[in-house]
Design brief:
The protein contains 9 helices and 7 strands. The chain has a 7-stranded parallel sheet, with helices on both faces. The protein binds nicotinamide-adenine-dinucleotide (NAD). Nicotinamide-adenine-dinucleotide binds next to helix 1 and helix 7.
Length: 245
Amino acid sequence: MLTGKTAVVTGGTRGIGFAIVKKFLENGANVAIAGSRQESVDKALAKLPEYAGRVMGIWPDLCSPEEVAAAFASVKEKFGSLDILANNAGISSRTSLYDYTVEEFSRIMDLNVKAVFVCSQAAARIMKAQGGGVIVNTSSMVGEYGQPSGCGYPTSKFAVNGLTRSLARELAKDNIRVNAVAPGVTRTDMVAALPQELVDRISAGIPLGRVGEPLDIANAYLYLSSDLASYVTGVTLRVDGAAMT
Ligand code: NAD
């Protein structure tokens, strides 16, 4: 579904991002894994020996326009284009408002929102020049419902939804589609570390009766990144088993 396309996946070293990387590679794309450190990127690359030649690593500071532009230029130079940007890197916390520091709020907003803006701008410049492209952002179910602690995280995901809708309208004329995926509770390292009894309790509150798997989210990324979604832009697609908490 993505043969001949080149994708950058931020936060592609583990969790949902790594599942997106694998899904894109399985579907024929060239992929650049963007991580925070060379060591974690190298570790992820070492798990993909069968795709050597179609996968590379980059580790720019995602909030630095200069570093991101240089890294994306190196991707275009290696593979010939940059067609898909998966803005997936994100961090969360559950700190109470009474203990929340401005530094923590800024840290969350920097990676979850500012980096999405910086990476989208750098990618859009390349995509516009080459005639089009696709951007897919990672939102969250809490970007619709909020959450009862850790206010910075849901705030950042509401912002991601706004950026998605706005950039979709602004970039449509350049043949760039912009969408988001909003996962529910998904079995990444954090969820895998919870006691099974707690995971069972969470699952019981989800109409589809289970937490999401990274593959469930990666499949949505594949759809939105492919030509199957050629008339879909400005959408935040919920992939949460109809969870509402
Ligand atoms: P994770 O912690 O397993 O992975 C996060 C990824 O982001 C890692 O690859 C990490 O290296 C990268 N990252 C962290 N800080 C970075 C930085 N400064 N620069 C570059 N990369 C950085 O998390 P995950 O659960 O796979 O989450 C991925 C995305 O999905 C996030 O945006 C998260 O908000 C969203 N999400 C996750 C869930 C869930 O239940 N897991 C639910 C809703 C939304």
